[in-house]
Amino acid sequence: MPELTDPKPLTEATVAGVAVPAAPADPQREKARSLAGDAWRDLRRKPMFYISGLLILFLIVIAIWPSAIASGNPLACDLAKSQMGPTGGHPFGFDTQGCDVYTRTVYGARDSVAVGILTTLGATVLGSLLGGLAGFFGGIWDSLISMVSNIFFGIPILLGGVVFLSVVKGGSVATVTLFMVLLGWPQIARIARGAVITAKQQDYVQAARALGAGNTRMLLRHILPNALAPIIVVSTIALGTYISLEATLSFLGVGLKPPAVSWGIDISQASNQIRNAPHMLLWPAGALSITVLAFIMLGDAVRDALDPKLR
Amino acid sequence: MTVISEGATAAPQAAQTAPLLEVRDLHVEFHTRDGVAKAVNGVNYSVQAGETLAVLGESGSGKSVTAQAIMGILDMPPGRIPQGQILFQGQDMLAMSGEQRRKIRGRKIAMIFQDALSSLNPVLSVGYQLGEMFRVHQGLSRKAAKAKAIELMDRVRIPAAAERVNDYPHQFSGGMRQRIMIAMALALEPDLIIADEPTTALDVTVQAQVMDLLAELQREYNMGLILITHDLGVVADVADKIAVMYAGRIVETAPVHQIYAAPAHPYTKGLLQSIPRLDRKGQELYAIKGLPPNLLHIPSGCAFNPRCPMAQDICRTEVPVLHTAGPGRGSACHFWKETLGE
Amino acid sequence: MSDSTLEPILSVRNLVKHFPLTQGILFKKQIGAVKAVDGISFDLYPGETLGIVGESGCGKSTVAKLLMNLEQATSGEVFYKGQDITRLSGRALKAVRRNIQMVFQDPYTSLNPRMTVGDIIGEPFDIHPEVAPKGDRRKRVQELLDVVGLNPEYLNRYPHQFSGGQRQRIGIARGLALNPEVIICDEPVSALDVSVQAQVVNLMEKLQDEFGLSYIFIAHDLSIVRHISDRVGVMYLGKMAEIGTDAEIYDHPTHPYTQALLSAVPVPDPEAREHRERIILTGDVPSPANPPSGCRFRTRCWKAQERCSQEVPLLAVPSVFAGQDTPAAHESACHFAAEKDVVHAA
């Protein structure tokens, strides 16, 4: 039998002086770390989280209190200034109606963000409720809910928007939100159904059942908390797309309608004049893009933080 | 089990030539969110042609990471090889270009993984995947490659190979899939095979079939085999020599017969005492106390010291070298004589 | 331990579980069934450990789920102290569950990652508040942690802060919380490292003595099953092939499958490898959706004859050994049962 390895002397240097005692240290000192706590710790290390977070915070502030940074009135217009470029006190210039583009862009945030957040809330609640039911109970519930959600999936958004919003009339934040919730919930429901089914199969749910836990306890204590992460991620990303969907609908004239102030409406009006007055398009469209991007970035960062596989 | 005796007689004569593969002072570390995990901390071992080296260790011992470093399939980053050499037929693979290494991988060194199902592409037939080796490396035609694939499947004793060559991986059982993996590893008649827990996912009756097949093919092709496992039973069945790893180091090396008869390291000794025996009902099992080490915080001195019944002050401060504990034997324990003598 | 004067605490009779195979999405049509468990019977006596071994797909984990009522049995009975628990639901089932608990295989998925250890071990008390008054619970949980060898201060930690072996101890503590009489262990150590397995096995033996528990210990590792079990049942394709005391099964097996299974286990002793006889089975386990007729093992059996394909062998003491005072006279479902020691080197 040959020599296995040459037993070269190993110097201490090879251990590079790691002298810390083994893992579980003093239980008193080490604070309990929940998964959410870990995720939060992870998020705070990501520049993307800060950038998107600050942007979103800023957006929400100006949505609530636009007069903080724009002193004018978005509906106070002077036709004489139609399509004028930037001047003193009006850095973004004027639109066709002679309204101040800066003021309108700032005020536009309110309805855009409101529609986005309300739609997300509505779609998430409805979607996770129905998706959760389908996933948890399965069988006929599952078939029924899946079928209904597939029907809603099949509706072309624009066609549906034209029909719905012309029937319902209005063009207010409420009606646009209602329509978008109706179209948006199946996406969340699918994710929720999958997440609930995955969580349901975990051994800890079986363990709870073996202990004699009822359905309510299993859903609230074991399944829901574990199914929540993917739903949160998808909702955050969807929020961005809802905002851009509202703009699209408004652009097509079936979403919000003047006198409402919205980026979509402004983009719509500006698109005819893109040659003469590109600044009219640039600002609302830029604000929209940055907003959508911010939410998608936040969703990405949250997903990375919540995914234990990336640890 | 004639393979063993043959391997054993062939080995001394091979010892005069250079080893097929030699790992020298290999270090591997991973940069994680919580710090640097030192997965491999100075590993030395060598394999001759026709010889089976079993690398034994628990999860986190660095046995698989070492193998991945040899194959060049380590994820870098987060992995990093700060020092060490991997000599294959006398050449340091760590100093080679990517192109040179690719030529060795698959052709000269092949690897068999634990999970055959995820190592095979689910949307391609096994015949196609086997044939691909020949088409890519030897430029064979599609038809010739398929014929070769059938021949290989015959070799690893898959029944009705000609009919099954167009089947997809999921249509085979676990044992058959592992045979296909072995066939794939053998395709280009490599000099060295690294088998990482090749039978862990299989049932015992199938495990026996696959291990026998592997041993037989190894003898036939006179290949070196590095068998990575945590199963002391499998090791006793097929290995010529053993390297026991703990916390990224080799703590004991020995010819297989000697290590079971008289281990020279307390960890090996504890492991051997802690497994129940099939052929007799024992008393309470000996249990090694404590937990496997956290690679982020490897204990100072001997990494095993917090769990070792023999630990003295010196074990907490001084890293034991691999002492020669007999012909072909090494033990990285300050008290190897006492351990052996007990 | 299996003193016949004792009443069994758990009696399983002709237990069957078929999982229907269906086709179609909206209008489901049954096209067959996976016969995961196909008529097995055994008894568990107070204070003993019954090991159940078999290869993957033999139905041993389904048996565990059926005993726990986590799956609904297709037919057959499970009597707990004379009461058939497969037909129970609601409050009656909940009451029985207090007495029969389970330890799961995978310590990484069997603990809810979003609950603290204190909440996990305390959950049984939330579900069965009559077991421990509210003020007492924290103390009880700490006692349980101490019993399974964990630091009682770990109460507020989360599962991912523990190693596999420690998590399995948490799972065991949860199983113990309600003072059950029977614990069903489904591969409780197979996911653990070798050096940690012994710790957990020893703990389980200690707890058995301390609390007078009965175990059903399901595993594929034959060595560990021998170590911990008083009696052992060998399953193959949904049926019990052979059952007896550990010495009867390991030292005097009479069923060819048991013999093949035992001979295939690698023994950690290189001296034995030249001397031991290996029975290498050909082929794979057939699909439980379409098992062979007659004896299920016949397609891989070297003793198989015409009779084996026509007649299902019953689990009984083989007629050749009937009435004899030999360890080979234990229940074995083979037409051609014959003793053969495969474990000990010749």
* Count of distinct strands of chain C: 11
**Which structural class do the helices and strands of chain C define?**
alpha/beta
Helix content of chain C: 25-40%
Indicate the radius of gyration of chain B in whole angstroms: 21 Å
Largest two-chain interface: B-C, 51 and 48 residues
* CATH-scheme architecture of the domain at 10-23 and 32-99 and 180-332 in chain C: 3-Layer(aba) Sandwich
Mean pLDDT of chain C: 87
CATH class of the domain at 10-23 and 32-99 and 180-332 in chain C: Alpha Beta
* First-residue to last-residue Cα separation of chain B: 31 Å
> What portion of residues of chain B belong to β-strands?
15-25%
Sheet having the most strands of chain B: 8 strands, mixed
Structure, explained:
The complex is a heterotrimer of chains A (311), B (342) and C (346). With 311 residues, chain A is an all-alpha fold. Helix content of chain A is 66%, strand content 0%. The longest helix of chain A has 37 residues, at 101-137. Mean pLDDT of chain A is 77; it is low at 1-32. Chain B has an 8-stranded mixed beta sheet, sandwiched between helices. Chain B has 342 residues and is α/β, with parallel strands linked by helices. The radius of gyration of chain B is 21 Å and the shape is globular. The longest helix of chain B has 18 residues, at 204-221. Among the domains of chain B are: 116-189; 263-341, no CATH class. In chain C, 28% of the residues lie in helices and 21% in strands. In chain C, strand 7, helix 6 (194-211) and strand 8 (214-219) form a beta-alpha-beta unit.
Q: What's the helix and strand layout?
A:
The complex is a heterotrimer of chains A (311), B (342) and C (346).
Chain A: H1 35-43, H2 47-64, H3 101-137, H4 139-154, H5 157-168, H6 173-200, H7 203-211, H8 215-251, H9 263-271, H10 278-306
Helix pairs in contact in A: 1-10, 2-3, 2-10, 3-4, 3-6, 3-8, 3-10, 4-6, 5-6, 6-8, 8-9, 8-10, 9-10
Chain B: H1 2-14, E1 21-32, E2 35-47, E3 52-56, H2 63-71, E4 79-88, E5 91-92, H3 98-104, E6 109-112, H4 116-119, H5 126-138, H6 142-155, H7 161-164, H8 174-186, E7 192-196, H9 204-221, E8 224-229, H10 232-238, E9 241-246, E10 249-255, H11 256-261, H12 266-274, H13 313-317, E11 323-324, E12 330-331, H14 336-341
Parallel strand pairs in B: 3-8, 3-9, 6-7, 7-8
Antiparallel strand pairs in B: 1-2, 1-4, 4-5, 9-10, 10-12, 11-12
Chain C: E1 10-23, E2 29-44, E3 49-53, H1 60-67, E4 75-80, E5 83-84, H2 90-97, E6 100-103, H3 117-127, H4 137-147, H5 164-176, E7 182-186, H6 194-211, E8 214-219, H7 222-228, E9 231-236, E10 239-245, H8 246-251, H9 256-264, H10 306-310, E11 331-332
Parallel strand pairs in C: 3-8, 3-9, 6-7, 7-8
Antiparallel strand pairs in C: 1-2, 1-4, 4-5, 9-10, 10-11
